[in-house]
């Protein structure tokens, strides 16, 4: 994790990829040079999340906030660095894209086949329909918690699904435990760790991360759990 506490969003992309996307998207967007953007980058990302969340709510699309803004909504760090992330159902992706376009936002289809991208308030926003190589499901969205995000209520990915998506994305090519460790500390009391262990705890990288959490006394070892 960066010193401020930004967090990946369940995808196997290195941090430098976000930086490249950010530069390209800001250059391509007419909102990039809007004069009334907050000087605080974290606040700018929150403003983007609030606007997108309000658009999706008004249109009636099932969704849940994900990524670092979701961590913030659950009580984690407010220092945000990269983008805002929203989960939607795969079958709703086209309808969501149409809603964003009707609101005047350009929607881009990147080479990756699990998300769409837009720019709002000069900030990157990812519309994700697959987390950690698994499709977003109705059940996942139904488990979301409705929380205030800088005063705007919206569904936020539940902590268990949030952590599971983050650690399931670990691989030999991208395995930044340091980015997710502070997130696990921030939401540990809200996570069903038995579900985490049952769904991804047998995979090598998630198992290693869970072992690290045990050694650091973030969570209790499996044998001590009741």
TrEMBL record:
Keywords of this entry: Transferase
Region called Disordered, residue ranges: 1-38
One function term, GO molecular function aspect: transferase activity
Biased composition (Basic and acidic residues): 23-38
Top-level taxon of the source organism: Bacteria
InterPro entries: NT_sf
Protein name: Nucleotidyltransferase family protein
């Amino acid at each position: 994790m960066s010193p401020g506490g930004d967090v990946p969003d369940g995808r196997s992309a290195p941090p430098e990829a976000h930086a490249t996307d950010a530069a390209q998207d800001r250059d391509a967007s007419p909102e990039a040079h809007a004069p009334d953007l907050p000087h605080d980058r974290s606040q700018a990302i929150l403003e983007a999340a609030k606007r997108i969340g309000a658009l999706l709510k008004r249109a009636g699309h099932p969704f849940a906030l994900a990524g670092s803004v979701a961590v913030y909504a659950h009580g984690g760090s407010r220092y945000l660095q990269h983008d805002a992330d929203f989960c939607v159902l795969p079958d709703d992706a086209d309808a969501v894209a149409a809603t964003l376009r009707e609101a005047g936002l350009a929607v881009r289809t990147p080479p990756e086949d699990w998300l769409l991208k837009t720019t709002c308030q000069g900030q990157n926003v990812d519309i994700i329909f697959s987390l950690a190589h698994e499709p977003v499901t109705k059940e996942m969205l139904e488990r979301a918690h409705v929380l205030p995000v800088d005063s705007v209520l919206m569904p936020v990915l539940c902590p268990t699904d949030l952590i599971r998506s983050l650690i399931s994305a670990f691989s030999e090519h991208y395995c930044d435990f340091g980015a997710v460790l502070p997130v696990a500390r921030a939401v540990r009391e809200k996570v069903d760790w038995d579900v985490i262990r049952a769904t991804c705890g047998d995979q090598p990288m998630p198992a290693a991360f869970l072992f690290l959490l045990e050694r650091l006394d973030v969570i209790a070892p499996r044998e001590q759990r009741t």
